[in-house]
Amino acid sequence: xxxxxxxxxxxxxxxxxxxxxxxxxxxxxxxxxxxxxxxxxxxxxxxxxxxxxxxxxxxxxxxxxxxxx
Length: 69
Description:
- Helices cover 0% and strands 35% of the residues.
- The chain contains no helices and five strands.
- The chain has strands at 9-12, 25-30, 45-50, 56-60, 64-66.
- The radius of gyration is 12 Å and the shape is globular.
- The protein starts with 8 loop residues before the first strand and ends with a strand.
- The model has no long low-confidence stretch (mean pLDDT 85).
């Protein structure tokens, strides 16, 4: 399990088709309080604001990783 912090830059995990397309990157803007959403301790939920669109998403932390620099 990765412990994400607000301000971490993250990206989506691999696409099913491999590395043909770039991954979307975003910034973790919030880590919801425990009990706000149903999540297991091994797969907490984070709120990500995507860099390209500015849209926000609530995601399980297992669906993203820290962006490679």
